[in-house]
Design brief:
The chain is an alpha+beta fold. The protein is built from seven helices and four strands.
Length: about 150
């Protein structure tokens, strides 16, 4: 069941638009912010609250690559795998992350600290290769810089 804070944030977003469908992504982001990911149960709760179909919510959630549809670690690493990042060293970063964390893209570390997710583009090609951890963007990342970056996230 949506809690009071979630309902309040969803209401604030819906007040900005006459079209409830235009508020779907923000509602999903609200749920993810408070719960860490968007479960099927949460989709049904938001659907009932907003008066939009669960299918509409699921379509938006699966299209928008910043919404997580399964449990994730405390910190989500989104590594850009666009052509620009690939050409500038993304494969080396993924290799180093696999070695250090013991996971491949789509997996979560055993301790629940990190989830590694590929993302099509972060839109900062001029500073590639890039990755995001939670809401923090890291650019010009090299395998040698990864340890220091990861150490910031407990």
């Amino acid at each position: 069941m949506l809690n009071e804070i979630e309902r309040k944030e969803i209401d604030e977003n819906m007040a900005c638009s006459r079209n409830r469908s235009a508020c779907v992504i923000e509602a999903l982001k609200t749920i993810q912010k408070h719960r860490g990911w968007v479960s099927d149960e949460a989709l049904r709760e938001v659907s009932a609250y907003m008066g939009v179909t669960a299918d509409e919510l699921d379509s938006a959630a699966t299209f928008y690559n910043l919404i997580l549809r399964r449990p994730a670690g405390r910190h989500v690493i989104r590594i850009c795998d666009s052509v620009t990042c690939w050409v500038t060293g993304e494969e080396g970063l993924v290799k180093r992350l696999r070695e250090k964390l013991g996971i491949t893209p789509g997996e979560t570390t055993r301790d629940g600290r990190f989830t590694l997710v590929p993302i099509a583009c972060l839109g900062i090609c001029d500073r590639a290769p890039a990755l995001m951890i939670d809401d923090d963007t890291h650019t010009g990342v090299t395998p040698e810089k990864l340890n220091a970056i990861l150490d910031r996230y407990e």
